[in-house]
Amino acid sequence: MQRIIIVSNRLPVTIKENKEEYTIQASAGGLATGLKSFHKNGNSTWIGWSGIISNDKKEQNKISNLLEKENCSPIFLDKNLIKKYYDGYSNGTLWPLFHYFTEFTEFKNSYWESYYEVNKIFTETIISQAQKNDTVWIHDYQLMLVPNMLREKRPDLKIGFFLHIPFPSYEVFRILPKRNDIIKGLLGCDLIGFHTYDYARHFISSVKRLLGYDVEFNTISTESRKVYVDVFPMGIDYKKFNDTSLKVSHKSVRERSEIQQQIDKFFMQDPERKLMLSIDRLDYTKGIPQRLKAFRFFIKNHPEYKEKVSLIMLTVPSRVDVEQYQNLKKEVDELVGQINGEFGTISWNPIIYFYRSLPFDNLIELYSSSDIALLTPLRDGMNLVAKEFIASKINKKGVLILSEMAGASKELGQATTVNPYSLRSVSNAIVKALNMDEQKQEEDIITMQDRISRYDVFRWANDFVSALNIIAKKQEEHLAGKINDVTKQELIANYKKSSKSILFLDYDGTLQRFFKVPQNAKPDEELLDLLKKLNEPENTEIVIISGRDKQTLGDWLGNQGYTLIAEHGAWIKPRNENWIEKAHSNTDWKKNIKPILESYVDRTPGSLIEDKTHSLTWHYRKADIELGNLRARELRTDVANLIANQKLEILEGSKVIEIKVSGINKGYAALEYLKNNSYDFILAIGDDWTDEYTFKELPNDSITIKVGTDKSHAKYYINDYIQVRELLKNLTL
Ligand code: GDG
Predict the structure, then answer these.
(1) Does some domain include residue 601?
(2) Taking the CB of the first residue and of the last residue of the chain, which one, N or C, has fewer CB atoms within 10 A?
């Protein structure tokens, strides 16, 4: 079985201290359960914070030794770091922002610094434990910088990340001052998983807008690698909930818990009574005050349900030191008091409120005794409680009212969904649930149980790891085509011993980075110097082969002893000679096409037209990335219809659409150039689609190199223009 390192903020165990003696209790949380099969075989490690604040090395060793038996490797953090990294950046910045509570989001530099530092500590611990080619699965928003920190030091690892909370829309995410660092941190992964398609979509949109990377379906092309994004809705241990529910249903009256006895009393007073349940951590994202207000609205507007329905609300203490949470507790206490005071009677409490956590069996008792689950978070990554409620319904009776803002609502199509901000919507749903006939309840529960039992937490974990393995294989294949130290040395050696060499070099994206305004891409000193040196040996010829117009190319690189091929081959300027026109055609066609391009410029802010002798080009690198892509597709269709039966073709480059005279391309131009001379070393480097012609046409023994990660006919891949310059520099040494 493969070795896997699981990394999360907290370890899946709780350490208890009693007179300097420590004991360990395994956690029954969803994550720990789901990863059990990977973790228990002894070939895996779980890295996380121990939960113990201690600077004492002896104590730390004691804890580490104990945890080793559980295959856990603890991280120790001091009080100050925990405060700023955990309470601060994780829960004071990322948690509220990612749940759309921008008003609660705090931006403090010291929080960020600690977050960065702790992410580094985690990374170093992983590095100290990871063997070659291990799989590392990192969890959640506290550790979003780890993937890239790890990738930089250990490119051999398979790295996956799963976000348990929502990824917000770009318009909210962009508020974060460190937005680029967070995105780049995550892009160190091979695979990034989200609960829902919406979160994945939001993430991809932020990547496109902030970093300008191309994305095709779920694949992001960064300069050096591809990163895959996919949806894995987290499940629960269905069998455990279902079996325990069966077990507790057989308990005798005497065995029943205090809470269950209270519930029994509630039903004894009137067996027709209905019980509604909500369970959540006391967190502002869970919409607890709004739920109470909706319940008040319901009782006020439907007095016929007085004494007939109660809401049993279990809220589990959470982040109790944080002010917002203390305020929330106060607000909830007051609301419960008000509602019970206003509507309650001697024999009926509208709200039965518990502020505590319960042992697992009691939780199941609650699930199985309740008729309705009222789960109305304002935002929730998934909400496992919804699935647990359904799984515990062994008698198939019950109704789930679920907020449409919870990830689980995307999966549980039979739930009654509500907008948690709308008191009326929640109240109507309660009435609907109270009146739902049993057959419908049964049908819905069975359908949902079927889904939850199939896609359980084990399947979730397995699917993620399997997907990561498949992706890692693809990455390996790509890596095999990459210029590495060995191929680089061979290439240099072959060049050095060749008697006549020719280098076909594309310009934009290959020798120079992309600029939002194409005319700004003028060669810098470093590049001019490099080309000059490269051109020094008598037996080396340099051909700059570009889609650019002859004027610009000539101004930038003319008369320096290089051959220039402009407009994809429409013009050629042999070294130290004048331009020769290779394409002969009239340009009347431009009169029809240009107004169309102009209309696209008007409707796509940031885009512009370039008019070349034999082509018209629409550039959209500076436009909004999504609008640009959309318009590019439209433009292609519009123009394709117009140019049918004319000797014109459409070329799609990197953020450009070019309409040009057909029969000329970089490949033909390169071949024609080679006709007159023989070379024993041919090198071609290019980054975009138009360079594929060159790669395809050149003789088999040529060395062809693609810049970037897109599929190519080239033999090798290289990351970016910086690495191209580095490689070329090596040829000059
Ligand atoms: C995050 C995301 C996402 C609750 N009270 C007791 C108790 N629980 C257990 C429940 C459930 C879990 O805690 C709560 O899970 P949720 O999914 O509802 O919420 P978060 O804690 O906010 O978790 C969330 C999740 O990660 C997984 O990706 O779904 O959206 O925010 O399992 O049963 N368990 C016991 N006693 C209690 O009193 N034993």
Answers:
(1) yes
(2) C
Lowest-confidence pick of 246-260, 442-456, 711-725: 246-260
Residue 39 has pLDDT above 90, yes or no: no
Proportion of the chain above pLDDT 70, given as a percent: 99
- pLDDT over threshold 90, residue 689: no
Q: Is residue 470 part of a domain?
A: no
Give all strands (DSSP E) within 71-162, no chain letters.
72-75, 135-139, 158-162
CA of 67 from ligand 1 middle (Å) equals 24
- What's the token pair of residue 604? 């796509």
Nearest CA to 177 out of 114, 89, 100, 101 is that of 89
Catalytic residue ranges? 506
Task: Give the model's confidence band at 658: pLDDT under 50 very low, under 70 low, under 90 confident, else very high.
Answer: very high
392 and 500 belong to one structural domain: no
For residue 163 and ligand 1, the question of a CB distance below 6 A is answered with no
Number of domains in the chain: 4
- 269 with 150, same domain: the answer is no
Cβ–ligand 1 distance for 234 under 6 Å, the answer yes
Q: Alpha carbon 573 to chain centroid distance?
A: 47
Distances from the Cα of 75 to the Cα of 16, 52, 140, 160, 669, angstroms: 16, 9, 16, 20, 60
Q: Is 169 exposed, middle or buried (0-12, 13-18, 19+ CB in 10 A)?
A: middle
The 10 Å Cβ neighbour count of residue 558 is 18
164 lines ligand 1 (CB under 6 A): yes
Domain CATH number, residue 515: 3.40.50.1000
Calculate mean pLDDT across residues 662-666. 88
| Residues 435 and 302: beta-carbon distance below 8 Å | no
* Strands lying side by side in the sheet with 226-231: 72-75, 45-49, 4-10, 135-139, 158-162, 191-194, 226-231, 219-221, 214-216
Please state whether beta strands 540-545 and 501-505 pair in parallel, antiparallel, or not at all (unpaired): parallel
C-alpha distances out from residue 134 to 3, 127, 327, 729, Å: 6, 10, 45, 35
Sign of CA dihedral 110, 114, 119, 121: positive
Domain that holds residue 85: 4-231
- Nearest residue (by CA) to ligand 1, atom 3, is 382
**Inside any domain, residue 140:** yes
The per-residue pLDDT for range 495-539, each reduced to its tens digit, is: 999 999 999 999 999 999 999 888 899 999 999 999 999 999 999
CA of 388 to the centre of ligand 1 (A): 10
Asked if the model's pLDDT at residue 91 lies above 80, the reply is: yes
Looking at the domain assignment, is residue 440 inside a domain? yes
